[in-house]
Write a structure and sequence with these properties.
Elements lengths: L1 H17 L3 H22 L2 H35 L8 H10 L1
Helix pairs in contact: 1-2, 2-3
Length: about 100
Amino acid sequence: MIGWLGWLGSALVVVSLSLDDQRSFRIVNLAASCVMLAVNFAIGMTSMVVLNLVLIAINARHIVRMRRFAHTEATSDATTRPAPARRHAHTDEHFATAA
């Protein structure tokens, strides 16, 4: 069982490194670090447990920062752009029947 989890964690690392999108990379790499943390804890590899704890913290921090940046960017776009003109169906019907 531990062997298969090790292979899964390794596969997730490889997949994460092949991703172009930064957010996807961080999420998959976070998952890989969690799996490898469990494997290394189970086999008693203290140095690898510490490494994976650090990687989990780094990936989680980057994911939170990306979410905050996306939220801030979406909020600033909403406040700097003019609101689109609204069309009301009842107004359009009124003009259509009046013509």
